[in-house]
Fold this protein.
Amino acid sequence: MIVIGVTGMPGSGKSVVARRIGETLSWPVYSMGDVVRREVERRGLPLTSHNIEAVARKLREEMGEDAVARLLMEEFERDPPRTPGIVIDGMRSLAEARALRALGPVCVVAVHASPMSRFQRVLRRGRRGDAASWDQFIERDLNNLALGIGSLIALADYMIVNEQGVDHALREAQRIARMIRDGEGKSCCGGRY
């Protein structure tokens, strides 16, 4: 099984990119953020930006840096994907990429956008648990960087700069998905994590 991990800072457009890659390849998309949000609710906490970040940190303290990936793989044990590959939305660290290699080769696609572009997107989407202020947004960015997302972005196999609008990001996602499907990414994906 091939694992395509999509990474990027909050509001970069990684979920849109992950969905397009999944649609292009007819592969399921799994959200690591949803795993953390389910854990927040399981612990009986309100679904706030602060609690999501706190639980993400706590999971890593309790279970190791690859905690969220391991929780997702536990879900796969109960309900295994039946496709030649999967797309993971929201990979946050090299440790998670390494853990997911247990499923097969891992190919990382990073999505990048400026902080102001990302903040405006976060405010527009209004997802439960998102940062509601610039200070919360920056705090969440710093927390993501502390988790190791910067290293994962730096070592990504593919990069999409999402500043030209959603149509451009979707075209790039589709192009990258086809490259991976057609084997153009097999020589570089999954080898260095």
